[in-house]
């Protein structure tokens, strides 16, 4: 698996890198660090000096990260791009065919301030590649399960397969979540049918099923993560039209800001959230 870790060199970005290093510590996996920045154009001479100093400092830190990761057996390289951060992450990830983008959900105290926060939600919205956001203090060693929120439509099985492809090497149990907003809801897929499908196609994997009644999807997911604080939560993001985006806030973007557990957003093709 090819993993791209976007970093602003802050403490929380380093924590996201630590998390990603465990994900990349599997056969045929590699990790690339990306540091992007946009210089402030004031006076040409000052800008040139700023660029040189910033890139020298960033290179020094990135090389130290790379050295430590290679010692752990993680194949690692890094790149510095003078480009808008969001554009750099999305375009480079797609151009180089990465399987996963990892970044922190907050940023503070780094060479550049507050890269993550709003950047995370924009990358989730624009990227065609799965995005994993890591909240402050989250650690891979504490993750004991992987959860996926499903609407129980048959088309959702595609996302479940995508999740399993990305995560099956970690040998963790899966929790399938459905947030029930209406007692009369009717779905094209039941938990029983889904269980039979999973038993047939993934007999060596462990699955459990959780239905939660809540008025809002994110309310139900927050309740779930309070009960299972050591899970990695997954959601999927479908294509939304311009007017959908204008009048409806993305559940994924909201959870990326609020989530206290790692959040993996799976993407449909040609989608923007």
3D architecture notes:
Strands 3-2-1-4-5-10-9-6-7-8 form a ten-stranded mixed β-sheet, sandwiched between helices. Strand 4 (100-104), helix 4 (118-126) and strand 5 (131-134) form a beta-alpha-beta unit. It has nine helices and ten strands. The protein has helices at 11-23, 44-71, 85-95, 118-126, 157-167, 191-201, 217-227, 242-247, 251-258, and strands at residues 2-6, 30-37, 76-82, 100-104, 131-134, 145-149, 174-180, 207-213, 231-237, 263-267. By secondary structure, it is an alpha/beta fold.
Describe how the helices and strands are arranged.
Blueprint: E1 2-6, H1 11-23, E2 30-37, H2 44-71, E3 76-82, H3 85-95, E4 100-104, H4 118-126, E5 131-134, E6 145-149, H5 157-167, E7 174-180, H6 191-201, E8 207-213, H7 217-227, E9 231-237, H8 242-247, H9 251-258, E10 263-267
Parallel strand pairs: 1-2, 1-4, 2-3, 4-5, 6-7, 6-9, 7-8, 9-10
Antiparallel strand pairs: 5-10
Helix pairs in contact: 3-4, 4-9
* Largest sheet, spatial ordering of strands: 3-2-1-4-5-10-9-6-7-8
List the secondary-structure elements in sequence, H or E: EHEHEHEHEEHEHEHEHHE
- Round the Cα radius of gyration to an integer and report it: 19 Å
Output the number of helix runs: 9
Identify the overall geometry. elongated
Outline the low-pLDDT stretches.
Answer: 107-115, 239-248
Considering DSSP H and I runs of 4 or more, what fraction of the residues is helical? 25-40%
Coarse structural class: alpha/beta
Number of strands: 10
Main beta-sheet annotation:
10 strands, mixed
Strand content: 15-25%
């Amino acid at each position: 698996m090819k993993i791209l870790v976007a970093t602003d060199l802050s403490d929380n970005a380093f924590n996201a890198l630590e998390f990603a290093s465990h994900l990349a510590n599997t056969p045929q996996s590699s990790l690339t660090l990306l540091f992007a920045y946009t210089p402030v154009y004031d006076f040409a001479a000052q800008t040139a000096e700023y660029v040189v100093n910033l890139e020298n400092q960033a290179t020094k830190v990135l090389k130290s990260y790379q050295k430590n990761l290679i010692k752990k057996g993680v194949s690692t390289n890094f790149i510095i791009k003078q480009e808008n951060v969001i554009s750099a992450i999305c375009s480079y990830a797609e151009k180089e065919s990465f399987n996963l983008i990892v970044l922190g959900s907050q940023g503070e105290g780094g060479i550049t301030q507050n890269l993550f926060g709003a950047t995370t939600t924009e990358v989730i919205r624009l990227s065609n590649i799965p995005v994993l956001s890591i909240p402050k203090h989250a650690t891979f060693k504490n993750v004991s399960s992987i959860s996926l929120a499903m609407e129980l439509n048959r088309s959702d099985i595609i996302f479940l397969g995508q999740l399993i492809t990305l995560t099956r090497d970690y040998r963790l149990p899966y929790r399938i979540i459905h947030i029930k907003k209406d007692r009369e809801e009717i779905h094209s897929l039941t938990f029983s049918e889904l269980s039979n499908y999973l038993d047939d196609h993934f007999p060596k994997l462990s699955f459990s099923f959780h239905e939660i009644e809540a008025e809002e999807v994110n309310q139900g997911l927050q309740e779930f993560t309070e009960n299972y604080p050591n899970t990695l939560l997954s959601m999927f993001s479908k294509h939304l039209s311009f007017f959908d985006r204008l009048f409806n806030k993305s559940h994924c973007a909201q959870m990326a800001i609020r989530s206290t557990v790692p959040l993996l957003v799976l993407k449909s093709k040609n989608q923007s959230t």
